Amino acid sequence: MVLVSNAQFARPALSHQAEKMREEHHEADIVVIGGGIFGCAVAWALGNQGRSVILLEKSLKEPDRIVGELLQPGGVQALETLGLRDCLEEIDAVKVLGYDVIYYGEEVRIPYPANARDAAQDAEKSHTDEMRGTKRKRPEGRSFHHGRFIQRLRQKALSNPNVSVVEATATELIRCSFTSQILGVQATRNGEQDSYFAGLTIAADGYASKFRKEFRDDTPIAKSKFWGLELIDADLPMPYHGHVILGDGAPILLYQIGTHETRALVDIPENLPSASVQAGGVKGHLRNVVVPNLPKQVQSSFLAAVERDRLRSMPNSWLPPTTNRAPGFLILGDAMNMRHPLTGGGMTVAFNDVVLLAELLSPENVPNLEDTKTVLKQMKSFHWRRKNLTSVINILAQALYSLFAADDAQLKALQMGCFQYFKLGGNCIDGPVGLLGGIIRQPFVLFYHFFAVALYAMWIYITSGNPLLLPIRMVSSVAVFWKACVVIFPYIFSELRS
């Protein structure tokens, strides 16, 4: 299904009166707070349905961030559905074919699997001469500079005749004094206070949302940070692949974001002794711990980046999703749900959420967005229908990070078991990377592979030691399986709550 393939196919602009209402009276069907990944996409999608949209963004300058730079195949597909695929053009984006996992110097390639949904289409065409003897193309992701991609999304939103983009900082929600329904938002524009009104206000103001705390008691949990460097002309072991490097310490990610640029992300947990001031701080950790674990051909460009770049970090946050219940107001995007960025699933979740939201809030399903009862009913459906994809990506990101940042014997056994599982090839690769890439959207497939890894790790643990200690190791292996349960079940339970 394609919601719209290009701007020229969007619904015609609303009447001049609607545009006048946006520009002069600051009234619209929808006010979106935040011109990032989710905000731009949802403004575009709802504007294409004939809704009048005001998009507020505090700064329209190109962002300079170290995350949001890898879009999985499932995200590329959602981008195509939304008619935003051309936003990947003219930004020097690099195709991503899969991953190269390097475990203490040993590597295994895990390419994206063939897309099952494409397979059905190919089957229909297989009888034609043009399809005989051809191989179906595997899905691809894209990596890029975050800021360039954001600017393309903003340009797209600006091109929509039903969307007005305003550079302003949202400060406070406007409530009805009788019903507590949200009527819009106050904002600062050019140093002056202004008000924007709509039947529905959407907060998509990111991981540090200023509005989330008004509607949720819980807060994002961050136990580590990603520290980012930009390597120039790095010689990666496997071009067009993301690299996950496992060794001493937490995981390291490498992926190309331009013709000459490669992003390095180093996970550093809180209060890590090797990153303490006494040990030379973060730069000391990068030189003394990270560099020895890198492939030899990458070390020189990494060290050059350590000396050249200003160190920047982003918290690796976990925030489980909840149902939106406030009349007239929705919290979405990273403001509503976050997971560890290890698997690069954030933008894939965001774009797929926009596809689903546009369907549920379409004029056919919700003729009037001021009908808060119907909107909240649709949002309850949204909460549960998104689970097929988002619960997979959320749980996988948190569980994989626990394994890849292993800090005890049981987690180390699971980490090794995971790598050895990948080495088996076939479905032991296609399943996990299909889940990671947003291609396979079945939570039970995730549970199958996770516990298959746990059982395989137990087998390796039992059989790799002294044969005379086999009975003892069999008993001890139960702790490995127990640790796997401790890792994954809290995240499963968090996805089951409303």
Automatic annotation (TrEMBL):
Bilayer topology term: Multi-pass membrane protein
The EC number(s) this enzyme carries: 1.14.14.17
Family: Belongs to the squalene monooxygenase family.
Record's compositionally biased regions (Basic and acidic residues): 119-133
Compartment(s) of residence: Endoplasmic reticulum membrane; Microsome membrane
Pathway: Steroid metabolism; ergosterol biosynthesis
Membrane-spanning intervals of the chain: 444-462, 474-493
Described purpose of this protein according to its UniProt entry: Catalyzes the stereospecific oxidation of squalene to (S)-2,3-epoxysqualene, and is considered to be a rate-limiting enzyme in steroid biosynthesis.
Xref: Gene3D superfamilies: FAD/NAD(P)-binding domain
Domain Squalene epoxidase as annotated: residue spans: 197-474
GO biological process: ergosterol biosynthetic process
An example molecular function term from Gene Ontology annotations: squalene monooxygenase activity
Catalytic activity: squalene + reduced [NADPH--hemoprotein reductase] + O2 = (S)-2,3-epoxysqualene + oxidized [NADPH--hemoprotein reductase] + H2O + H(+)
One cellular component term from this protein's GO annotations in UniProt: endoplasmic reticulum membrane
Keywords tagged on the record: Endoplasmic reticulum, FAD, Flavoprotein, Lipid biosynthesis, Lipid metabolism, Membrane, Microsome, Oxidoreductase, Steroid biosynthesis, Steroid metabolism, Transmembrane, Transmembrane helix
Domain (FAD dependent oxidoreductase) ranges: 29-59
Gene source species: Zasmidium cellare ATCC 36951
Cofactor annotation: FAD
PANTHER family linked to this entry: SQUALENE MONOOXYGENASE
Region (Disordered): 117-142
Record protein name field: Squalene monooxygenase
